Amino acid sequence: MNTHYKLEEVWPQMEDGIRKLKNILEGVPGESQFDSDTYMRLYTTVYNLCTQQGRDDDVIHGRYIETYHTYLRSRVLPAIQEKHDVFMLRELMNRWANHKVIWGGLDYYLNDFEKAFLTDTADYYTRKASSWIQEDSCPDYMIKAEECLKREKDSVTKYLHSITEKKLLEKVQEHLLLNNAQQLLEKEHSGCHVLLRDDKTTDLDRMYRLFVNIKNGLNPITAAFKLHVTSDGTSIVIQADDAMATGKKEDKAAAGLQEQAFVRRLIELHDKYYAYVTNCFKKDDLFYKALKEAFEEFCNKDVGGSSVAELFSTFSDGILRKGGSSEKLSDDAIEETLDRIVTLLAYIDDKDLFAEFCRKKLARRLLFDKNSVDDAHERSFLTKLKQQCGTGEFQKNPVDLIVSTHQACLLMLFNDSDKLSYSEIRAGLNLTDDDVVRLLHSLSCAKYKILTKEPNTKTISKKDSFSWNVEFTDKMRRIKIPLPPSDEKKKVIEDVDKDRRFAIDASIVRIMKARKVLQYNELVTACVEQLSRMFKPDFKVIKKRIEDLIAREFLERDKDNTNTFKYLA
């Protein structure tokens, strides 16, 4: 059974020790130093008095201050005041030396007290942790841990040397938190996953506060956060994939609504967990990284046979075309929604595919959609895309025509030029000759001659040149320029694949021109790093492009090491 120490009962014993210490400091003849038994008896009494449960801290601290001040007033101050000049300075130095001795000598404090104190503290909180981890929920456990840390910090301020604070708090953190982190965070009904699922922001905030000052303490929390967000996002993708697959078989309109709902759910999911990172996790870079990696995990999966890049572009088109389809959005709501789409775009590998779909949908809106929202939103969205994608030269063209995407792109070439040759148009569109001939014929040789052709014949030649037909008029306010149907989606993907091949070729040549000689793995890594802003190149495609460049004599293999390549000037 533990003994309860009362100050008044042990004070006579402590006074004897204090009197002896004063005599030693004053140099009283015949006063010997403390023997080890006396010292340890006094030390144990003081220690037990100051650490026991139910102690009266104010009374103990008050008695200490009173005793100390009495000594200073009765002995120290008079001894200094009665001396003058150099003798006063010597007395002051002597008294200062004694003052430092009163503060125990740091070596004695560290070796005789602090070492044992920290060991006892570790044992105490190990026992507490083993009990609390079984009995308490994760939030309750964290509340107790936070209270313990505060109490120990206060005790240092009142009773201990400041040098002990960091060591003491680290001991508490180690034995209450670090050693039990996994078991605490993975509690079945109250762990990190449950707190995230149930929006327990106060508990998540406390969790961050407790673990942020522990070395690597946040690692298990960020891992749990990433896993939870990935699980939520993947669930949304799977549900949307099933719903879209069913919808496309039954009703295209329903499938379109499913696509919109999917994108909105991703926006809401990102808003939710971005708020967690901002508020609960104090904008910590580790959590931004975990959020990014989680969204990259599920935002690059196909949904309902379409890439997320395509679904984002379709959703954006709907917002810009009619202010949000069936719902009427305010100008601020439109801007906020477009901001969120651009934010999510950062997690998509195929940014170039998104940009290509957007360019084609933009052409449609600008050329023949009178229901599109005002130009301010269009310009704002283009600015955001350029900042995010680093690409996209979109030009306005207010011609009121109903045309295909490729027809629109061809007409937009005349925004910068009054007259274009066949070869210039083909280069601007980057299409095959068959496609270019087909497009030019529909616009210059069919019923509606939107373009004039030189020479004025009914067939298209590679030597022809074309101009905008400024004299074109028609009674109809909106006219449709017919063109045989084609698989536009397939064409877009083919065009993007071709652009990627050119981009990979250019990247490899730039790298090799600068480096001259590179190993295969180094070349692939450098190429991926250069192109990752727009898309994530496939290693197999990079390998094929290297072989093609060797065949075209831009590169050659090292004769002694076939895994090494040299640049040929």
From TrEMBL:
Coiled-coil spans in chain: none
GO terms of molecular function: ubiquitin protein ligase binding
Protein name in UniProt: Cullin family profile domain-containing protein
UniProt family annotation: Belongs to the cullin family.
SUPFAM superfamilies, per the entry: Cullin homology domain, Cullin repeat-like, Winged helix' DNA-binding domain
Domain Cullin family profile: 307-396, 400-444
Domain of life: Eukaryota
Pfam families according to UniProt: Cullin, Cullin_Nedd8
GO BP field: ubiquitin-dependent protein catabolic process
